[in-house]
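Hi all, long-time lurker, first post. I run a small reading group and we've been trying to get comfortable going from sequence to structure in the token notation. Rather than ask abstract questions, I figured I'd post a concrete chain and ask someone more experienced to write out its structure so we can walk through it together at our next meeting. Sequence below, copied exactly:
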Amino acid sequence: MDVVTLDNFVSFTLGIVVYFLGVAVNKRVPFLRFYNIPDAVSGGLLAALAALLLYGFADIELNYQLDVRDTLLVYFFTAIGLNARLADLFSGGRPLLIMLLLTLGYMVVQNIVGMSAAWALELPPALGVLAGSASLIGGHGTAIAWSPEFSEVGVKGALEIGVASATIGLVIASLIGGPIAQFLISKHSLSGESDEKSGIGVAFANEAQTKIDHISLMSTMLVLHLVIVVGWFVSQVVLAFGLKLPLFVCSLLVGIIMSNFVTRFFPKIEWPARGRALAVISDFSLSMFLVMSLMSMQLWAISGMASSLLLILLAQTVSAVLFIVFVLFNLMGRNYLAAVLSAGFGGFALGATPTAIANMTAVTKSHGPAPMAFIILPLISAFFVDISNSFLIRFAISL
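-- Answer (accepted) --
Happy to help. Here is the structure in token form:
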């Protein structure tokens, strides 16, 4: 087996090529456009399948250096923070609280479903937790971090099972969010409010700020970097108090604070919030992060997984769809915001926060903006979930 590792430059360049592959495929397949499958998802999955064929027929294993991808994630969430308005946050307090309670409740449901499926298949119940909130709503990082704990309670190959579950979940999450939202929007005749001016990306940028040149891009990048630097210092302060938060979460929060207070105390300053330059950077960052994440999946690592794991994940997928359609959508108000959040919830309940954002972005670009969705979901998925999940995992595997 020949192992080929592509460096950051080549990985980044290939990611751009793969993204345009997804654009071409989506243009030619109406089904993908109708169900709001992001271009990055279509291209990334095709590239991952191509890598699987190389592995199977040419004995070549492709690996990617992904430092650039991780930086783009920080850019994207910082842009979300810069676009946020405190007035939106205060007005969205009730939806934020309801969404948080629903998310915490679903994490319990996810583990119950996993443990029940494992019990039915005569497997250790802890394996169901690993194929539940640990790897799905928790993602690859949580699954890897907790794998030694699962090994200690009798789950053989915990690391491999956790990574496989998270990878399969990411694929499913990329595919179900758009169709769920399309179903809800069509059934209830929903659309974005015409007077809403904010969202994610060029489609929702402030039309008054139409100028995009090297000056506007450089000034926007400067603000992004300043916010990220402050976010890094905040993450270090928080870490000193024993709480570890990802850099993109701290940058998101700092972006919200700075965007609302800098413009208030320095009204003459040219701030990039809601501008087209920031919209271009956020669109680019999200698209490239997602396409590089999907194309770098090593599908051969999960192709040989036991059918029992696939059955557990099938049960998780069905339960997620039912929960979203019959519980979350109804309790969130049965409106357009609820439909967009449904797409996002499908993205992060089985995958990751960027997948959720990509799902919601695809929906809003087709049907209209829903700015509160892009504040509510990242705060919940990135801030509250990891802390709560640790307690739930610990409790579940001790049963």
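A couple of things your group might point at:
The radius of gyration is 21 Å.
The mean pLDDT is 87.
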